[in-house]
Amino acid sequence: MIMKGIHWGRILLAGFLTELGIFAVFIPVLVKFGEQPARYTVPPLALVMTFLFSVWAGKRIRSRFVLHGVLIGIAATLMYVVLTFAQPEPFIYIVAHTLKVLGGAAGGRVAEKRRQMFQAKTA
Question: With CB atoms 3.0 to 4.6 Å apart as the test, which of 19, 36, 47, 73 could cross-link to 100 if both were Cys?
């Protein structure tokens, strides 16, 4: 069963922290430089924050690392959509949501590799 072994608490927490991290950088850029420049910070922030929090979440899981990362990206995206009441978004934000999922998958893969390296050292 696919639901077995999924760490939903970690997924939701990492998704929330991803969005919090994006806003923590976006808001100061928005205040200092205005809306248009700030918009272009969102896609790289989405990729990097989701990657980082997927690697973080991967420290406590034992399997399905990439799936966990993808779910973190999806959770972060859904949190943003709920927060904005599903209002129409600029295309660049759609790109950012896609990058959240890709960043999560990449972070999950890195977490998986780290786990494999750690297991090889202890074996």
Answer: 73
What's the whole-model pTM score? Answer: 0.92
- Residue 9 class from Cβ within 10 Å (0-12 exposed, 13-18 middle, 19+ buried)? exposed
Residue 2 pLDDT > 70, yes or no? no
For residues 66 and 4, which has the higher predicted lDDT (pLDDT)?
66
Side-chain-facing half-sphere of 50: CA atoms under 13 Å: 31
- ∠ CA 50-51-55, rounded to 5°: 115
Going by C-alpha positions, the residue among 33, 103, 28, 35 that lies closest to residue 73 is: 103
pLDDT, mean of residues 97-113: 97
Burial of 109 (0-12, 13-18, 19+ CB in 10 A): middle
Residues in the chain: 123
Q: In angstroms, how far is CA 42 from the centroid of its own chain?
A: 12
